[in-house]
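pinging the channel bc i need a second pair of eyes. not urgent but kinda urgent?? the chain im working w is below, pasted from the shared doc
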Amino acid sequence: MDKNQIVQLLEGIGELLALKEGSSVFELRAYENGARALNSLDGDIKQLVKEGKLKGTPGLGPTIIKRIEEAVETDHIAFYDELVANTPAVKLDMLRIPGLGPKRINTIYEQVKVTSLAELEQACKENRVAVLPGFGKKTQDKILQGIAFLSEHADRFLYPVAEEEAARIHEALATLPEIVRHQVAGSLRRRRETVKDIDMVVSVADDAGPEARRKIMEFFTTQPTVKAITGKGETKSSVILGSGIAMDLRVVADRQFPYTLHHFTGSREHHIPLRRRAQSMNMTINDYGLFKINGEQEELVPCQTEADIYAALGMEYVEPELREDMGEIEAAAQHTLPTLVEEKDIRGVLHAHSTWSDGHNSIREMAEACIERGYSYLGLTDHSKAAAYAGGLSEDDLMKQGEEIDRLNEEFAGRFRILKGTECDILRDGTLDFPDHILAKLDFVVASIHSNFQLSPQEQTERMVRAIANPYVSIIGHPTGRILLSREGYQLDMEAVIEAAARHGVCIEINAHPSRLDLDWHLVRKARDKGIKVPIGPDAHSLAGIDVIRYGIGAARKGWLRANDVLNTLETEALLAFFHVQRNRG
């Protein structure tokens, strides 16, 4: 169990205690503080526990440390399991509704007497929730929207959850000598932002007997992370993993591997026009192979890799991220597919927080972590004063922070550059939280919406467009405000926002945090085609947070971005020149 999973368990204990009648407020606060304290620590949690380095950490008392040690040693916390077992199931279900906290959950449970989400939905439709003290019709409507949201996204998982589960199995399978090749397939390979299940394909030698396949399947279905077996055979086995995600493993002869991998990578939408192209060339393609049709006979077209399959169809290789029927078939046939951006193309970080606002690390620590990762610059963007909940800076504090940045830049002496920035709140009327004469003293400005999500689509769009028109706005941060699997974004016309950004030369961010990945990849290509530069920002609040850039790379690749489409592939001086031209755009 890694640090993030333990943090989630501690946060979960705090929530469960809040749901429990008679719980001590001091106890639940201890778990909330413990989760924050643990999240701020750097280094491998197993090593920290082994070396006894948790002791003395502010926010981690003896009981919390024992819970963390238990999680590291046993992969669970018995106290958490006990709380879950003793909490009514409907309360656990209600915790998943966006914006519905423990206090209101307890009120609904005690006064409306619901025992399921279906009953809660019916109670809302009958206006029995709106009349509760402190609720009202707006809250009731939000609960209904939340239930609908949960129904729509049921049984889906964030990309990192699926990736981590798949990586464990992939690493374990690599130890089996019977396996020739093995690869993750499905939507995980295509780097979709959420994943319903995991597909993996492995191959054995063409002359391997059934015993080799049986050994692989026995090994797979008895892995420690497997919680249930839903199917088991020599060519396919299905399991449920610890996170609750389903996984299928397929075993094929190595000569069949590229065809099967291609087929189960998908998407279905990509395969339909690909099959039409194959048919136009008197061929057919499925998970068993690519075949040339000769009368009533089908002749296998030998392919060692997926690239061979596309080549046989007269096409460039289509990267898995692009296989969504978004024009990639035509582009591959015309040999005009883009060379997609890669993680190694990124030169620096734009969008990061420090202890000046709600970050866990100092500016120096964030800068040194960037240097360790080979980056050339750090664009620091602590919150503005309207974000008081996140320790937003006043104008005076922002200027003092600038002085610290100047001192550090002198010390780094040209080998690294910290850029003065802010994540400046876009206020309700579209003006910015800092006046222009303050923004003019910064290197760049990320403007973001953090409040008034309930505005009408027209009001929200006008608000965003007005902010874009401010000459000091460099980048729009997390433009829709969505939280994947938890909260829909605020309602606005993104087509109009993209048009405005293109008109004013403003960049639109891909917020790389895996719970955001906002701008959505469907819109990324539209922004690119309008000439908008797209930064990939980690929105880092800790040293480890810097590394989520790689998730943003996935969204960028799905949006057809090349290296020169991504703002932070620019070297330091070129980036500063870009910002200078941008704010003098007239």
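so The domain at 3-152 is CATH 1.10.150.110 (DNA polymerase; domain 1). and The chain has four domains: 3-152, 155-265, 275-337, 343-583. — does that match what u expected or am i reading it wrong
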